[in-house]
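Supplementary Methods, section 5.1.

A reviewer requested that the exact input to the structure prediction be made available. We therefore reproduce it here, unchanged from the version used in the analyses.
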Amino acid sequence: MSSLQSTESRDERISRLRAEGRLVDRFGRVATDLRISLTDKCNLRCTYCMPAEGLPWLPKADLLTDAELVRLARIAVETLGVEEIRFTGGEPLLRPGLPQILQEITALTPRPQTALTTNALGLSKTARALKDAGLDRVNISLDTLDSQRFHDLTRRDRFADTIAGIEAAAEVGLTPVKINSVLMRGVNDDEAPELLRWCLERGYELRFIEQMPLDGGHVWDRQQMITAEEILHSLQEHFELTPDPAHRGAAPAETWLVNGGPIRVGVIGSVTRPFCGDCDRTRLTADGQVRNCLFAVEESDLRAPLRAGASDEEIAQRWRTAMFGKRAGHGIDDPSFLQPSRPMSAIGG
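The structure derived from this sequence is encoded token-by-token as follows.
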């Protein structure tokens, strides 16, 4: 910490950061991590995300074009201080222009770190091209190692394709390959140790994520959610877990060294162990709306001013205003909590 930061008050720090044009909020948090949703479409139908018949997709005319998306990313990096960009969906691999988007964004100065959250379908065919275009690493969703359970959970027979995509990511160097798993009571909650063992054998980093109230059917039930505490208890029956000495910072996962390391396992307790106080994220939906929180019920439109001819600075100022109004926390435990109208597939993770 610099001497300036150690002596200034929070209000002074916020004023300084606002003067610098950063994405700071009323509580002094600064957004440096941009999540860009490339599409709301997905080629799986995971039971905890959307109904079997899918959801109404956004009209193509409402989606940001590749050029619009790159321009907003440029403003975020060059003007607002964003340092990392993660591409999400829906399923981001369904975006045809992804390699070109990556090339243009990684050519920005300063170059942002890039990541992709994906179900890995098709990644076996695209991993090399994405790596060559500038993608740094991937997070891949995998909730079970049983092909029949995979079919039951996703309503698609694509287990082998997901595994092939994971292997391709590791082969081309999109590392560390991180695996995201959601456990559901009575469905796959017995698989935590097996999933971790499988990842350890292959050098992948596993992240368990508490199921969040962001499903398309709005049927999330806290009583049925597998908590972070339950996940850790299940793992500790089979592995020695020691707290990770590395500084967590704004990372969403609490991490532990497994059997002394070096491989880690993480738990993202978004509901029961929220990390809102250190959140450094800003989100852009596929149709150009800024969300200052995953659970926000309001959005700020950047697409309309973009298409109306607004300058970079005008767009940047709208973005700053949107982030400054961020709430202290997601409020899931508050009786007044309202689940966002958009599901996760339309928000972007």
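Residues 1-27 form one domain. These observations are discussed further in the main text.
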